Amino acid sequence: MSGETLFGGTARYSQEGQYDGQGLKLILHRFIIDAIDDEGVNILESPRPQVSRFVTDRVVDYVNRHHLAVSRYEMERLAEELVDELTGFGPLEVLLHDSSVTEILVNGPNRVFIERDGMLHQSDLRFIDDQHVQRVIQRILAPLGRRLDESCPMVDARMPDGSRVNAIIPPIALDGPCLSVRKFRKDLLQSADLLAHQSVDEAVLQFIRLAVSQRCNVLVSGGTGTGKTTMLNVMSLLVADHERIVTIEDTAELQLNHPHVVRLETRPPNAEGHGEVAASDLIRNALRMRPDRIILGEIRGVEVIDVLQAMNTGHDGSMSTVHANSAQDALLRLETLVGLTGRQVAERTLRQMICAALDIVIQLTRLPNGRRCVSEVVEVVGIRDDVYVTNTLFRLERHSGKFLREAMNPASEKLQHAWRELQ
């Protein structure tokens, strides 16, 4: 059966004689917008139940008037999706309310991927077209005061519930608008959860607990989505209640369940290029706030010098994360970031500074089955012949999935005390 053109759109029947849902929804969307304009009242500012009644009445009216082969269930579902589209985040609405979904990835209008239990799956949800995706993105960004257009085609922001949002649109994104949402976990993971998920074993967890209590400076390293922020959260729970913590992040993701926390967040420049507050500025300011510990969400730029100096000037017990594939790579990554600052530092001096600042590196990985876990815990000992000397304390044996204790004894006094407590 051929399609019919209504309100500028085309509704197509499937081979079974049913209307194509997305095509019909597009037509109904335009029909309802026209009805709102005709009545001269912005029903979208009304409470959701009133909007739902308005939309349902119009959907029933349209289906009956055009004698469409649509069941009552399908009409109700269409009406609910239209209400979500008009008042919420369209196809994403159901995903945002699904606690089992940890990440949402939109690659243009027809490909929506979700992450559950560390594994990505393609969803059967989709948008109508590129404009539909952009309307939802703009609706997400509107209350955040962030801008997304051709002059500023990329944005990184935080939703009111703490979820992290990144969006990029054409012409930069060639296949249509792309959206990434890393959802904010409302139930804070505890150390027992790490054991339950086999992210660590009892010995590794006990060692981390003792290292935090001994005020070791810790660098958490890993790839994207390996659980670096989660590890920082868990370690923060191990900090004594009487200590004052200052956190610094580009996008606030840390959930520190601690009685004395000061949370700072960087600010990007405005449309005129002014008003930026960088992580390095916040680190320098944090040093004047009498912190016992500084937690930097991620080292990614010129702030690397400032955080290393903070760790070297009496702020023991500080923590941060970095993107790297191994503990050794993490140390080299810090060197690279220092080089990008433009500061001229002799290689040996720089390596001595890194070794003096850091006590241990906790490397995280994500296995093919989606399991996120600690792959190694490495002590940073020093340098010899201008090369880093490290001591692997724990290592994940990938074949068996067990954590092996590698070293006989750590080099530093702080870690020796923690190591003896494990015996």
TrEMBL record:
Pfam families per the UniProt record, alphabetical = T2SSE
- Record-annotated Bacterial type II secretion system protein E domain positions: 86-366
Give one GO molecular function term: ATP hydrolysis activity
Return the InterPro entries for the record: P-loop_NTPase, T2SS/T4SS_dom, T4SS_GSP_E_ATPase
Q: Which residues cross the membrane?
A: none
Can you tell me which family this protein belongs to? Belongs to the GSP E family.
PANTHER family named among the record's database cross-references: TWITCHING MOTILITY PROTEIN PILT, TYPE II_IV SECRETION SYSTEM ATPASE
Task: Provide the protein name.
Answer: Pilus assembly protein CpaF
* Source organism per UniProt: Pseudomonas segetis
Phylogenetic placement of the source organism: Bacteria, Pseudomonadati, Pseudomonadota, Gammaproteobacteria, Pseudomonadales
